[in-house]
Amino acid sequence: MHRLSLVPAVLAGTLALGCADKETPTDPTGPTPTPAATSLKTTAGGQQEATGSAFITLTEAGGASERITFNAVRHSNGSVSGQFELFTEQLGGVRLHGIVTCLGIQGTVAHMGVLVTQASQSGIFQNPAGILAVKDNGEGAGALPDESTDLFLDAPPEVVDAFCAGEFELPFHPSEQGNIQVHP
After folding, report:
1. Which domain holds residue 157?
2. Quick check: is 57 in a domain?
3. Which pLDDT tens digit goes with each residue over 75-112?
4. 3-state SS string over the chain?
5. 91 is a domain residue
6. Rounded to two decimals, what is the model's pTM?
7. Number of domains observed in the structure of the chain
């Protein structure tokens, strides 16, 4: 698994250790909700959602700017729908668009599994599955900036499942613009 540039070896090792005993589904790109994602508790209305946009700077990727726009809904029947779009300065500038395949919300943090369906550059990943998280830090002048992780691509199915179940975190970056709403 890698971000558009490189994933630190420590993160890759953590992901491998945390997911070593997970069973691998036969279709790694299938956009169906995962059992782990659908077993999380939902609100009284039975629906969870995360929407918004974030503009972040990736210091570990040479200061590359990235804009992420997304909407994700886990319906009361457990199905997941939504999409995302990402523009990044990494690799000379890349645009990715895709669907949300799983959603896990814990408090004000939304973990999403995604599947890239369109890319402005071909051959930048071997597996179109990825993971992304966002954090809603509230509204108003006294609130901290909302946060987002970078999108990590080439995620094996067991990593996507574990991530949506909230079994591990990725490093967050403060959003310089935009607004994120997470409704558990």
Report:
1. 2-20+33-183
2. yes
3. 999 999 999 999 999 989 999 999 999 999 999 999 99
4. CEECCCCCHHHHHHHHHHCCCCCCCCCCCCCCCCHHHHCCCCCCCCCEEEEEEEEEEEHHHCCEEEEEEEEEEECCCCCEEEEEEEEECHHHCEEEEEEEEEEEEECCEEEEEEEEEEECCCCCCCCCEEEEEEECCCCCCCCCCCEECCCEECCCHHHHHHHHCCCCCCCCEECCCCCEEEEC
5. yes
6. 0.79
7. 1
